[in-house]
Amino acid sequence: MGYVEELRKLVGHRPLIFVGSVVVVIDELGRILLQQRKFPEGTWGIPGGLMELGESTEDVARRELFEETQLVVDEMTLINVYSGPEHFIRAANGDEFYVVTTAYYAENAKGDLVIDQTESITFKYFYPHELPNNIVKSHKDILDEFLLKYYPFLSTVN
Questions:
Q1: 51, CA 20 to 30 Å: which among 1, 78, 119, 126?
Q2: Are the C-beta atoms of residues 80 and 104 closer than 8 Å to each other?
Q3: Which long-range contacts (CB under 8 A, 24 or more apart) does 90-99 make?
Q4: Quick check: is 158 in a domain?
Q5: Is the pLDDT at 140 greater than 80, yes or no?
Q6: Which pLDDT does position 58 carry in this prediction?
Q7: At 14, which CATH number?
Q8: What domain range is 41 assigned to?
Q9: Three-class secondary structure assignment of the chain
Q10: pTM of the predicted protein model
Q11: What does the pLDDT read at residue 2?
């Protein structure tokens, strides 16, 4: 049982603050790796997850990327930290939480992509101008900022 599950046993559905990290992986063609998630069903997102005790935000990003894809990244660059009332979530089971997300990007991950079927339907690399429409809102915000900072030549972002 992980940290989040242990907390939920103690506090029930009360609002909590969770810290998480995501990593935008860019391949050698400039494409962005996205995860089609089982929850919310069929939506696309950036690989990542929540912090466990004793981890840094960098540790979380690397661990979650590896757990979900078997890919490894060395250098990561900070995109931004996202927090505040717009990051409040009420899960289908009634759990409430505020998420503080640290977003990174990394180029040219190493390894062979292997999909963790417990959380993911599939993974796919997308060119920045061909991103799918059904991206998790908070991840869409991260991608929009990333593209604005690092791909300013794109005139429009989905």
A1: 126
A2: no
A3: 93/13, 94/13, 95/8, 95/13, 96/13, 96/14, 96/15, 96/16, 97/15, 97/16, 97/17, 97/18, 98/15, 98/16, 98/17, 98/18, 99/17, 99/18, 99/19, 99/20, 99/138
A4: no
A5: yes
A6: 98
A7: 3.90.79.10
A8: 3-150
A9: CCHHHHHHHHHCCCCEEEEEEEEEEECCCCCEEEEEECCCCCCEECCEEECCCCCCHHHHHHHHHHHHHCCECCCCEEEEEECCHHHEEECCCCCEEEEEEEEEEEECCECCCCCCCCCEEEEEEECHHHCCCCECHHHHHHHHHHHHHHCCCCCCCC
A10: 0.91
A11: 84
Name the amino acid, one letter, at 70: Q
pLDDT digits (tens, 9 = 90+) for 7-24: 999 999 999 999 999 999
Identify residue 8 by its one-letter amino acid code: R
Q: What is the pLDDT of residues 31-56, one digit of tens each?
A: 999 999 998 888 999 999 999 999 99
- Copy the structure tokens of residue 47: 């690989």
| Residue 10 domain-assigned (yes or no) | yes
| Cβ atoms within 10 Å, residue 13 | 13
Nearest to 125 by CA among 134, 113, 136, 117: 113
